[in-house]
Specification:
The chain is mainly alpha-helical. The protein has one domain. Strands 1-2 form a two-stranded antiparallel ribbon. Helix 1 packs parallel to helix 3 and helix 5 runs antiparallel to helix 7. The chain is globular, with a radius of gyration of 19 Å. The C terminus is likely disordered.
Length: 172
């Protein structure tokens, strides 16, 4: 999910900054699926017991903190930085232009993604480094995981509630 949001941010950035009007999606697929495959199967170098049930999620077992950092937290933090920088650059570029509303509204997907995964990241870090399971944090973590789709729908709906952009609306 992080890789797809990063690729969407890069694609949108390339279009907004007018660097490339039609990025080659097949390269995004190659990189995303390739890196996801490596991140999933590389920890098996340690053995088959690397993955186990970690709370409600099947994840890298607690003794393998290096693998957690290497295949999840490291790439995640790098992608958070990439998404944030590209989003802020797009917001800065489009704040005074007559940019198409469709492009302007889609720049809010990335900040929603970053905001939604803040609590889950904190929860996973607390669990990873302290071996404590805080029920309230776990509950908010679970709710945040479910909110991503809802926020995407709200952002998308906001685009189509504008009378000028509703398909089939000829009231001019």
């Amino acid at each position: 999910m992080f890789a797809w949001t990063t690729s969407l941010s890069i694609s949108l950035y390339l279009k907004v900054m007018r660097i490339c009007q039609s990025p080659k999606e097949r390269y995004f697929h190659l990189v995303i699926w390739g890196l996801s495959f490596l991140a999933t199967f590389l920890p098996f170098i340690e053995g088959v017991d690397v993955y186990n049930l970690s709370g409600i999620w099947c994840w890298i077992a607690a003794p393998y903190i290096g693998w957690r950092l290497g295949v999840f937290y490291g790439p995640y933090l790098l992608q958070v930085i990439i998404i944030a920088v590209l989003t802020f650059m797009m917001i800065y570029k489009t704040r005074h232009t007559g940019m198409d509303k469709k492009l302007k509204i889609f720049k809010y997907f990335s900040p929603c993604f970053l905001g939604i995964f803040l609590i889950p990241t904190i929860n996973r870090l607390v669990e990873a480094f302290t071996s404590q399971h805080i029920w309230e944090l776990f509950l908010v973590h679970t709710l945040c995981q479910l909110l991503m789709g809802l926020l995407n729908v709200i952002i998308y709906f906001c685009y189509y509630t504008d009378d000028d952009n509703v398909p089939g609306n000829d009231n001019r």
